[in-house]
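pls ignore typos typing on phone
NAP + seq
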Amino acid sequence: MTSIPTVTLNDGTWFPELGFGTYNLTGAEGVDAVAGALAAGYRLLDTAVNYGNEPEVGEAVRRGDVDRDEVLVATKLPGRDHGYDETIASARGSLERLGLERIDLYLIHWPNPSVDKYLDSWRAMIRLRDEGLVRSIGVSNFTEHMLTRLIDDSGVIPAVNQVEMHPYFPQAALRAYHAERGIRTESWSPLARRSELLSEQAVVDIAAAHGVTETQAVLRWHVQLGSTPIPKSGHAGRQRENADVFGFRLTDAEVAALSGLERGRLWDGDPNTHEEM
Ligand SMILES: NC(=O)c1ccc[n+]([C@@H]2O[C@H](COP(=O)([O-])OP(=O)(O)OC[C@H]3O[C@@H](n4cnc5c(N)ncnc54)[C@H](OP(=O)(O)O)[C@@H]3O)[C@@H](O)[C@H]2O)c1
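k done
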C-alpha cells in the first residue's frame, strides 16, 4: 500500500498530495472500486451530488477498515442548490446520502455566474464549517475574478479550488494566484481522461527515463506543480499504479516539457460560460 504524503491547507487541516476521483463509479461495483482505492492507500475521495454516488462512497468508507478520521470525503454543491438556505439543505441531503456525520471538504461545484448566487452559498458554507458539519470549504471551477469577489465579500479564503488541469491545460496563471492567496489547487481530469495525452512523445520519453508508466509521469507532474490530482480508475491495478508516484522525481526540464504540451481545455468547460445545475 502506498503512503500518500500530505500538505496543510490554509485552515490548518491536512490534505493528501493525491486523491481519488469517483465520477462514474456507481452501484455495487462502485462501492468495491472505492473500497479498493482506500485499500490501495488513497485517503481523499472526491464525489459530488451530481455524480449520483454519494451513497456508494459513504458505504465504502464505512465498509473499509481505515479509521474515519484518516479519510477525507469531498462532495460538491450542485448548481440547482445555489443560495443560502438551499445550500444548508443541500449539505444536509449530502450528509444523509453519504451516511456520514461530517463532510470533510465541501466545494461549490460550478460558479454558474449567470445565476449569481455563489456568494450566498459561500456564506452558508462558512456557517456549516463553523457548526462542524463540514471540515474544510472550497470551490471548484472558479476563475481568479470569482475567487477575488468571494474573498472580498466574505473575508474567507477557500481552502481549495478544484479545476481542470493536465499537461494540455496547465493553469499557470491561476496556480500563481492560488499560491499568492494560499489556496490549494486540485486537478480534475488529471490524465486528460486518458486521451491521446498518454501517447505524447514527451510523456513516453519521460516515463521511460524514470522506468515508470506514462500515467505515473503525468501524475508526478501534478504533484511537483503543487496540485493534488484526483485520478479515477475502476481497476485495482491502475489504482495502485496511480498512487505510486512518490518514489521518483522529474527534473525541472521534464516538468517544463510536459507543461509545454499546453493546447487548451479538453471540452468547452470555461466557468465563465459553462454552467451545470
Ligand atoms: N469539479 C469538476 O467539475 C470535475 C469535472 C470532472 C472530473 N472531476 C473529478 O475528477 C476526477 C478525475 O477526472 P476524470 O474521471 O474526468 O478523468 P481522469 O482521472 O483524468 O481519467 C480517467 C480515465 O483514465 C483511465 N485511467 C485511469 N488510470 C489509468 C491508468 N493507470 N492507465 C490507463 N488508463 C487509466 C480511467 O479508466 P479505468 O477506470 O478503466 O481505469 C478513466 O477512463 C473525476 O472522477 C471527478 O471526481 C471533477
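The longest strand covers residues 134-140. DSSP finds ten helices and ten strands in the chain. more later
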